[in-house]
Design brief:
Organism (chain B): Parathalassolituus penaei
Radius of gyration of chain B: 20 Å
CATH superfamily of chain B: 2,3-Dihydroxybiphenyl 1,2-Dioxygenase, domain 1
Strand order of the largest sheet of chain B: 17-10-11-12-9-13-16-15-14-18
Oligomer: heterodimer
CATH class of chain A: Mainly Beta
Number of strands of chain B: 18
Number of domains of chain A: 1
Number of helices of chain A: 2
Number of helices of chain B: 5
Helix content of chain B: 10-25%
Number of strands of chain A: 9
Order of helices and strands of chain B: EHEEEEHEEEEHEEEEHEEEEHE
CATH superfamily of chain A: Rieske [2Fe-2S] iron-sulphur domain
Largest sheet of chain B: 10 strands, mixed
Domain VOC (chain B): 156-273
Distance between the termini of chain B: 51 Å
CATH architecture of chain B: Roll
Shape of chain B: globular
CATH architecture of chain A: 3-layer Sandwich
Distance between the termini of chain A: 9 Å
Pfam families (chain B): Glyoxalase
Bound molecules: fe (ii) ion
CATH topology of chain B: 2,3-Dihydroxybiphenyl 1,2-Dioxygenase, domain 1
Keywords (chain B): Metal-binding
Protein name (chain B): VOC family protein
Structural class of chain B: alpha+beta
Chain lengths: 132, 318
């Protein structure tokens, strides 16, 4: 039996106002979760804001593909109020992905579909083709 | 005017602890620290100075998103300080501070300071390659690679790159008022600028950008050579930091580079082996492109060796 999701983390791994990066490709997930090095850039990150989880691609709209954390899992500004691209300090609303300050202001982060919580886990729904 | 180069960059930061740790891990030496500030030096005494963002003694930043509050130049003598004060005093306020340094705004809104340089002379060999036929080689029985060296330290504050809304105006200030000259230029982007008492290809690079972006693209210290840049950058990544671009070698300036994200609202670079030019040099111009920007580009990889236990994909995946 093949699950139609990948487990990213335990729900308790991402508390309110925290963020965490992942590479959900099956061959890379362990490495992403266990390797705390910033050299393996995460594909996506998850932030918990007002209780809700939001998943965004780790790619700043200013320079697509450019990674946003300043160190592993550090995707938020100092106060935790906004997602921050630590290339030039651009700030994004954590729930809408709208850039409110910085080079890409008015632009949006790209949402990662299929993120949900169940049984105390943060999961990402995957297509059967990928799962199989 | 004998403006030698950058002595210090002063930041007002919302996350002081993060910024302190970042600079220590980068290789700077902590020389002063209290609850509200810190000073982090390279080997020659040039530095990054941190304050909490809400410190009322800090000059204003040019825009809300910029954490840089002051760019401090080192000059060779008091005559230079007087000449700068006289020149800039023609059309703007020039403050003399208690320590004898002066400060004034540039034409973009960056606060500048000028002081008798704090730079201590360094007497250290650079990275020397044993190149067949070269007169200068490493001493016999000396080692090029030191894997056990606890810390690699930057040598001196090298350059800063500003986003400016009006490149011509910003450039004119440094060239016409302070005697800088353009050493090379990316057409449609901006000039590399060299101060009058300095031979480095650039201490400043200006990038034209919308006014709301006015701020810093990156700053960097010179390291002892490419091995130090790459080894220090590798270690930095393994401490969890996020690379942005590099390692590689630029075309204009020839400097080795490795850029990282940071909590300073700008990139922070490690660089080494920049070209030096005197007045004989004529500036080049080129449209910017990947090819014009670097001779080659590499990337971080985990250490690996071909043998038992190696992953089937050779760690080339991704
Ligand atoms: Fe640079």
């Amino acid at each position: 039996m093949t699950a139609d999701f990948v487990r990213l983390a335990a729900s308790s791994d991402i508390a309110e106002g925290q963020s965490r990066g992942f590479d959900p490709r099956p061959a890379r997930l362990d490495r992403s979760a266990n390797n705390r090095s910033g050299g393996d850039s995460d594909v996506m990150f998850v932030v918990r804001h007002q209780g809700q989880l939001y998943g965004w691609l780790n790619s700043c709209p200013h320079i697509p593909g450019s990674p946003m954390a300043w160190r592993k899992d550090a995707y938020l500004n100092a106060s935790g109020s906004h997602v921050c691209c630590h290339a030039h300090g651009a700030l994004f609303e954590p729930d809408t992905g709208l850039c409110v300050q910085g080079p890409c202001q008015g632009g949006h982060l790209t949402a990662v579909p299929g993120l949900y919580e169940e049984a105390g886990e943060i999961r990402l729904r995957i297509r059967a083709a990928v799962a199989g | 005017m004998k403006i030698i180069g950058l002595d210090s960059l002063v930041f007002g930061v919302p996350d002081l602890e993060a910024c302190r740790q970042y600079l220590r891990d980068y290789g700077l030496e902590t020389v002063a620290e209290d609850d509200n500030s810190g000073c982090y030096e390279a080997l020659d005494g040039t530095s990054v100075v941190l304050f909490r963002a809400d410190n009322p003694s800090l000059p204003a930043a040019p825009t809300a998103g910029c954490m840089l509050r002051k760019t401090i130049f080192g000059v060779a003598d008091t005559d230079t300080l007087s000449a700068i004060a006289e020149e800039l005093g023609k059309d703007r306020e020039v403050k003399v501070l208690d320590d004898g340094s002066i400060e004034a705004l540039d034409d973009t809104g960056f606060m500048l300071g000028f002081q008798l340089t704090v730079r201590r002379p360094l007497d250290l060999a650079g990275e020397i390659s044993n190149a067949p036929g070269a007169a200068v080689q490493r001493p016999i029985n000396s080692l090029a690679v030191n894997n056990s060296k606890a810390r690699i330290q930057p040598r001196t504050l090298s350059h800063i790159v500003y986003f400016v809304p009006d490149v011509a105006k910003a450039e004119a200030f440094y060239v016409e008022r302070l005697g800088f000259r353009c050493t090379d230029r990316f057409i449609g982007v901006g000039p590399f600028l060299q101060p009058p008492g300095c031979l480095d290809h650039h201490t400043h690079f200006l990038i034209g950008a919308p006014a709301f972006m006015t701020g810093v693209e990156h700053f960097t210290f010179h390291f002892g050579g490419p091995t130090e840049v790459i080894q220090n950058g590798h270690n930095f990544i393994e401490k969890g930091y996020q690379a942005f671009w590099g390692p590689g070698r630029h075309v204009f300036g020839s400097n080795w580079f490795w850029y990282f994200n940071s909590p300073f609202a700008c990139h922070v670079e490690m660089d080494a082996d920049m070209d030096m030019f005197d007045l004989e040099w004529s500036a080049r111009e080129a449209p910017i492109s990947a090819d014009a920007s670097q001779a080659f580009l590499l990337g971080y990889r985990q250490r690996w060796f071909p043998g038992p236990g190696a992953p089937v994909n050779g760690d080339y995946e991704g």
